[in-house]
Design a protein that fits this description.
Layout (H helix, E strand, L loop, with lengths): L1 H10 L19 E6 L3 E4 L2 E4 L3 E3 L13 E6 L5 E6 L11
Antiparallel strand pairs: 1-5, 2-3, 3-4, 5-6
């Protein structure tokens, strides 16, 4: 459809100003959404994301503790990945 409109524009069959050449989507296009503590919950085997619903991910490993945020990434091949992050508490060791 984009090329039809483009060539019709060049031939004068289309009203209005001439259109530019259509552009292709980039291969490196990726989309992501980050959810904080209030917007998700983890209940085995599902993850609930606000405004999306329950998902059943394939877990690569157990979560060692409660996650502080979840990022969902969609790559250019229409695959979805879930990445969790957590807060770490550091303790200072005493020098002896």
């Amino acid at each position: 459809m984009a090329y039809k409109n483009y060539f019709d524009s060049l031939k004068g069959k289309r009203k209005g100003k001439k259109l530019g050449q259509p552009r292709f989507k980039k291969k490196k296009n990726s989309q992501s959404a980050t959810f904080t503590k209030a917007a998700f919950s983890v209940k085995d085997p599902e993850v609930y994301l606000a405004k999306i619903g329950n998902l059943k991910p394939i877990w690569s490993k157990e979560l060692p503790s409660q996650a502080s945020s979840v990022t969902v990434i969609k790559d250019c091949a229409n695959r979805y990945f879930k990445c969790t992050s957590r807060d770490c508490q550091t303790t200072k060791g005493s020098k002896t």
